[in-house]
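Quick question: what would this complex look like in 3D?
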Amino acid sequence: MQLIKPDTNFDFVGKRTIALVISLVLLAVGIISLISKGGPDYGIDFAGGTLVQVRFTDTTNASDIKKALDGLEIGSMVVQQFGDDENEFMIRMEKTSAELKGLSIEVQETLATTYGADKVDVRRTEMVGPQVGSDLRMKGIKAIVYAMLGILVYISWRFEFRFAVGAIVALIHDVAITIGVFSLFGKEIDLPIIAAFLAIIGYSLNDTIIVYDRIRENLGRYNKESFSFIVNRSINDTLSRTMLTSGTTLLVVLALFVLGGGVIHNFAFAMLIGVLIGTYSSIFVASPILIYWEQRKLKKS
Amino acid sequence: MSDQTDALLREKDIIFKRIERRQKDRLVVIVYDSAAGAQVDSLMAENFPNLEGETLPVTGGYIEKHYRLSEQEAVNIADFAVRQALETMRNRVDEFGVSEPTLQRQSDNRILIQLPGIKDPERAISLIGKTARLEFKMVAETVNVAEAQKGNLPPGTQLLFERNTSSNGVVTETPIVVYSKTSLTGDLLEDANVRIDTRYNEPYVSIDFNSVGGKRFEQLTAANVGKRMAIVLDDSVYSAPVIRERISGGSAQISGSFTSQEATDLAIVLRAGSLPAPVRILENRTVGPSLGHDSISKGIKSVIVGGLLVVSAMIIYYSLSGLVAVIALSLNVLFIGAMLSLFGATLTLPGIAGIVLTVGMAVDANVLIFERIREELRLGKAPKVAVDLGYSKAFMTIIDANLTTLLAALVLFQFGTGPVKGFAVTLSIGIVASLFTAIFVSRVVFDFFLNRRQVRRLSI
């Protein structure tokens, strides 16, 4: 079976201005959302706080749970339904406690006295102190920055410096848009999401490198043609592979998104956006940057 | 420290005004003249060689001598304290009985403990985190407790509380003033066990001192017959019995209306030794058994479904050659599983996510190769030649693409924590495994068929 015929020749390069507009609009929407919400929505991993995930046997609702916990003087708290089960809730508090008897245990005991000990199933508790939270945030940012630096060096060595710049711009583009979409949908950024960002970086990079590799090869083959022709030819040459690999990756990520359950839902969501954007960016961002670079060089000389 | 200095100075008959602790890290000795000052200096240098001394100018007829640890020494002590804490916690976890615990020292002063499969995390935390500093202090009977509660404490004494649980479960706290000087500590313990008091049918903890501790306990009790001695654990008084007679034999008991679990835990922590300093909980994550089970089974289900989807896509797209890719993919997953169990890594949710991603990306190498083979076939090459060229042309592309992803995964492993690390591990293993299976294993399968018979048409 073949989805893309061998003689396919879409004019991707010609559409690069439209692509630029689309990318800028997506970025702008994300940035506006981020500004209006005062920065990304950090989960407790990065903001610090306490989280308790509880499943109740009886029907209850968020405001009842809040009322039950009133006596604890927790301060600001968010209670929301979580996952597939109607009576499963996530209670998130800003407060943390460094004592041996943590806040989550107090919450658990209070709920047990209100609802009955056998009607409350505490499925997960997490407490991250503010110090650890900011440490983790620094580590997450460091991980992303170092990964990008390493990539820059590797691609400059294997290809040329301009290829490295194109790849990095595409990566920043992908992660920035994913962060924007997260902010738009009001989803929190926590540790697994950072893992997802890095997976997106890895994936998008993989995609970009394959197109670049073909450009490098075609530069030798069609030495009479213009640079933009070669870029367009290379994108078309690899299109069949791009579609198939993106397709299979999307299939598994979709399986994860639909069947993976509550805890992994956000991770799969980030991956879903990332794979789509990553595929788009290697065709419409990473490759056109090489052309812009080439044009600027021609103008100068 | 201040107690030891006090004893030393008195032993040598050096006249001094007083000894006090200041600003957390300073020990100050105040003397009347420089002769005494010199004596103090030489004495301190002899007994505490790691202290740095400093003499303040004479004010009002007194000389203040300041002593504190050098910075390097303070770092060494802090390092030693964390190592000792780790050791003690390991002992406690061992006594608690957890099947596969991990205890790791993280950055300089943090310890990470993972206890899979425990039923009562709350109890485990209090058991591991309890400082368990056991001290015996004499009760200062002459001090007015009411005055002390207002803050008027005579120097050298401190206010503590005795906790009592009455039979109907009401907890009361009685203030009690003791001398700050510690007469004896739990460091000299040899063993601690739970016993049942036959009169009240209440559990208590019996402790046995080692020979040094036993001797000191005997001296202490002999010198203080008729007085009360407080048994203090982590700054709260468990009991303060009157010493009726000299106690020899080196054993004592701690009672204090315990439940039997409290008594058991106390015996465990006393046996395992005290922590050198109190701990603070910085991060605590607990996954209940129901969720752990749910999410793992859901994760595995999505891996299987995703895998099947990929398998059918590959076979539909590349027919028989797709099947070769599927063999490579199955080997890949098997390989990841084997490596994970080799490293003794537990399968976590992000780990599963890493596998899912690898499954999606692992076929990429084969897709690249197959597309190249198709191109060569279109140019009219014979199947065997096309396969050869396909593999050799795709090789560098695959290496470049995978190495960059591996680079990202390794950085992730280096800087990531917890779940991110797990994800990085499976992803790295997956990339290496897919390089092997896609380039080598699938090639072997192709060669096997192409060499055995004359293949005219390649099913790709």
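Answer marked as accepted. Chain B has three domains: 2-69, 81-272, 289-452.
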